[in-house]
Amino acid sequence: SGMLGFTGLTEHDAVAFSILSVREGGPAAKAGLRRSDLVVAVDDQLLDPGSLAAGTAWFDRGHEAALGRAIERALAGRRNRLQLRVLRDGSEKTLSLTLPLAKGTRPGDLDRRIRQDVTTWVASNQKKNGAWPKNFVNSSIAGLALLATRDRDHAEAIRKLADRQLDKNPQARDTKGFSFWEIAFQGIFLCEYYLASGDKRALKWIEDAIQWLPSTTHECKWGMQAFGHSPKGLPYGEKALIAPCAHLLVFEALAERCGVESGVWEHIRPYVVHSWADPAKGGHGGMGYNAAAKDEREFWSRSGLVALALHLRDHEPAMKTALTAFMVGRHPWLLNSHAYGEPGGALGLIALRVTSPTDFARIWELWRWRFLNAWEPGYGLRYSSAHMGAPYMGEEEIMNPSYALLFGVMDEGLVLAGAAPKRWLPR
After folding, report:
1. C-alpha 6: how far from its chain's center?
2. SS3 89
3. pLDDT of 104-136, one tens digit each?
4. Which residues are CB-contacts of 82 (< 8 A; sequence separation ≥ 6)?
5. Residue 228 pLDDT exceeds 70
6. What predicted TM-score, i.e. pTM, was given to this entire model?
7. How many CA atoms lie within 13 A of 405 on its CB side?
8. Within its chain, how far is the Cα of 39 from the centroid?
9. Pairwise CA distance, residues 384 & 48, whole Å
10. For residue range 55-89, what is the model confidence (pLDDT) as tens digits?
């Protein structure tokens, strides 16, 4: 908990969670919480058996949710204190924690402050070489978050990242490893960067990538062209991958906003349609590996990204509507986005904010507890383990850029969020 100042370990079906560490000077430390304390109740409410499985059980009564909602209730009641009941050395103690917020602060008033903190985190954590810590993708997300502010104070940082990416990865076709994720995120960043700056180097990179991408697909087991992790081939017995495809479709849609002609969508459309569980045919409406996929637990971010691409292209309205409805109905699985956890949750929320602002506003209210719990005022968001994937993209290193980007999208600061293209970066 960033707000309360400790890290804890919760176990599946347990009715308590243990304290792993206490942040010096934080609310928990000041209240006397110690490492190895066992928390059994929050504000006199005994903890339910905690679920670690993604879904409604975790969302409704998981221990992270119990803490977040207790913070939310305290603020809604204009209180800045809550109590933890702990077991220590065979005895029970009740500790009173003071939230690091003024008494009378309302939950909804804090969105602006959280946004300021995560944006400051992004601006303060750029490395000297122009990148951000941990992962290439994180840098693109951080750069997009700064672009979304349309604040000239960030112009140097944005240009520094663009220079690094164009130097480190001068052509999409030379990208190594699981390359389509890097290509998609670099492409999305460079599209928004080009629209803000007019930098012809970025446009050349975008044009080359878009012209090359249709040549990188392979025939999948269902007899249609599809993307894998990279141009090398298709994994999982030639079953193909919708996840990198979804990211690439957002890149392509933005490339068209840059004036670049593309045939990626037309080339890959049969596979996308095949992967969509069409409600008119008895499907759940989400975007899976194939239309017969019945497992609805991993489809949050890929459904959102395809819906976002369709929205930007103004294509396939029935598919976009169904994908959006699927996301709304399955939002408790937000942190189970395939292989990601985060930034998958943030990417899905970004897509939902663009495709259906009304639905997004309702879902955001339902999830505010998570951000109140994760937020350390004056720092930003603290990471908590997602349901799927490992923190190979970092912890705070992915949380803060991802949600800084979401806040920028909420302010419609990017073309992908509905803003009109505008050359605002100084030359």
Report:
1. 23
2. coil
3. 888 888 999 999 999 999 999 999 999 999 989
4. 42, 43, 70, 71, 74, 96, 97, 99
5. yes
6. 0.96
7. 31
8. 29
9. 19
10. 999 999 999 999 999 999 999 999 999 999 999 99
Mean pLDDT value of segment 41-49: 96
Please spell the DSSP secondary structure of 170-206, one letter per residue: SSGGG--SSHHHHHHHHHHHHHHHHHHH--HHHHHHH
Q: What is the mean pLDDT of residues 215-242?
A: 91
Query: For residues 261-281, b (16+ Cβ closer than 10 Å) or e, as one string?
Result: ebebbebbeebbebbbbebee
Residues 163/169, Cβ–Cβ less than 8 Å: no
- Percent of residues, the chain, with pLDDT higher than 90: 85
Q: How many residues does the chain have?
A: 427
**What are the start-end ranges of the H helices in 44-178?**
56-61, 63-76, 111-124, 136-149, 155-168
Q: What is the spatial distance between Cα 168 and Cα 163, in angstroms, rounded to a whole number?
A: 8
Residue 399 Rama label (left phi>0; alpha psi -120 to 50; beta): alpha
Alpha-carbon distance of 380 to 402, in angstroms, equals 12
In this structure, the number of other CB atoms found within 10 A of the CB of residue 96 comes to: 12
Q: Evaluate whether 189 touches 195 at the Cβ level (below 8 Å).
A: no
